[in-house]
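hey
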């Protein structure tokens, strides 16, 4: 790994990175086998984990790496961290790294939390005094104060991940490498971590994030890289990377705009038709700001499906999701549907969208977590939001603005003591 000194070079650059592993064709499992065949040579095959991967990450960028299991995501992250050397190609990294790649790496299970926090902080570049001074902040962020005297071997996996992440973010790192092990934490802690990500991004730090969750990819990343069998197959907008990811998962092409014959998903249910209604229940192609807007989708089932879930993404002209809603938040089940049944899903909200054109994207999935997708409907429907004036935001919330001469407030302010001028 080469550390660049130029201010103009991005903090991370990978150039034609190649990494492979030796996999034995035959394993020797017992000492008896070794004694009986002392001269037997174990033959190996080369498994290519990364095949000429090239990309760069800009300073202050939240960069996602997506791909199926075995695509090389974690291997690439470990190469960036310097854990693995590369066979060919080069990696440049400028800045202090903080890694959160594997759960519990560097922890001693026979030590309590405080000893592990101090020890890990020192390994990440803090002085012993700095590591001890930051202990309280680490343990409070991890919400483990009542378990601080407990040995780590008695911690649950969720407690481990909270402590490890808390240590990682306390290092004054320029670059943070995060693997999908973050999914071990509960929903509340994951949101807490994402808040930290946003703060770090605002501070100009660089984050590389490996994930299977296309929702998180779309929500947080500026750009993303898609890997498949060790090769970079696409890099660009997170939404487009998510589309390609779904195409690879289901082994078929996504539908071009306006074409409903070629679709993503297993086809056990389809969106037959989708439309937009205004506050009076009339179908429309344009909706005035401040009115109620309703997006409806008619579904038809090809087989029996239990409790299907529908999600809506309202995309702006930059293909960013401005409104996200899902039927999975309903407390009651959506019901059981037989082959040939139809159902109508409706998403209604007050139209506070900024003036412009929007494209609804609808997904229909089986109940559960992941990409168990039945259908994805996009490109055949769009609508326009009209308004008196575009203020420049992605939404236009009604805000009361006033200017007044409140004599009481002015009198109180004039009676306040004037602070003395500080000596220069």
């Amino acid at each position: 790994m080469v550390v660049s000194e130029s201010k103009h070079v991005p903090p991370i650059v990978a150039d034609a990175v190649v990494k492979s592993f030796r996999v034995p064709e035959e394993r020797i499992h017992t000492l008896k086998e070794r004694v009986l065949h002392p001269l037997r040579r174990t033959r190996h095959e080369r498994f290519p984990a990364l095949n000429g991967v090239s990309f760069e990450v800009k300073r202050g960028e939240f960069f996602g790496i997506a791909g199926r299991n075995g695509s090389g995501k974690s291997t690439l992250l470990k190469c960036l961290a310097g854990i693995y050397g590369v066979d060919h190609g080069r990696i440049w990294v400028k800045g202090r790294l903080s890694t959160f790649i594997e759960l519990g790496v560097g922890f001693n299970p026979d030590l309590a939390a405080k000893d592990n926090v101090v020890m890990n902080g020192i390994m990440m570049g803090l002085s012993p005094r700095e590591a001890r001074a930051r202990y309280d902040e680490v343990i409070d962020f991890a919400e483990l104060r009542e378990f601080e005297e407990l040995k780590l071997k008695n911690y649950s996996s969720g407690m481990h991940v909270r402590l490890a992440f808390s240590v990682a973010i306390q290092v004054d790192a320029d670059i943070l490498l995060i693997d999908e092990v973050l999914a071990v934490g509960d929903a509340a802690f994951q949101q807490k971590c994402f808040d930290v990500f946003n703060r770090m991004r605002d501070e100009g730090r660089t984050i590389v994030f490996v994930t299977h969750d296309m929702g998180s990819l779309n929500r947080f990343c500026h750009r993303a890289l898609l890997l498949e069998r060790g090769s970079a197959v696409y890099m660009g907008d997170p939404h487009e990377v998510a589309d390609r990811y779904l195409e690879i998962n289901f082994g078929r092409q996504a539908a071009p705009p306006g074409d409903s014959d070629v679709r993503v998903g297993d086809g056990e249910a389809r969106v037959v038709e989708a439309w937009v209604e205004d506050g009076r229940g009339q179908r429309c192609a344009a909706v005035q700001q401040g009115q109620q807007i309703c997006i409806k989708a008619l579904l038809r089932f090809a087989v029996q499906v239990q409790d299907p879930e529908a999600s809506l993404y309202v995309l702006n002209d930059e293909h960013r999701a401005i409104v996200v809603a899902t039927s999975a938040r309903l407390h009651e089940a959506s019901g059981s549907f037989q082959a040939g049944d139809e159902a109508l899903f409706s998403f209604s909200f007050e139209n506070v969208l900024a003036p412009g054109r929007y494209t609804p994207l609808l997904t229909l999935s089986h109940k559960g977590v992941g990409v168990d997708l039945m259908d994805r409907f996009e490109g055949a429907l769009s609508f326009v939001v009209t308004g008196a004036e575009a203020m420049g935001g992605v939404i236009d919330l009604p805000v009361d603005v006033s200017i007044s001469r409140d004599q009481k407030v002015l009198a109180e302010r004039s009676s306040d003591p004037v602070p003395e001028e500080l000596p220069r």
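DSSP finds ten helices and 20 strands in the chain. Residues 1-6, 251-261 have pLDDT under 50 and may be disordered.
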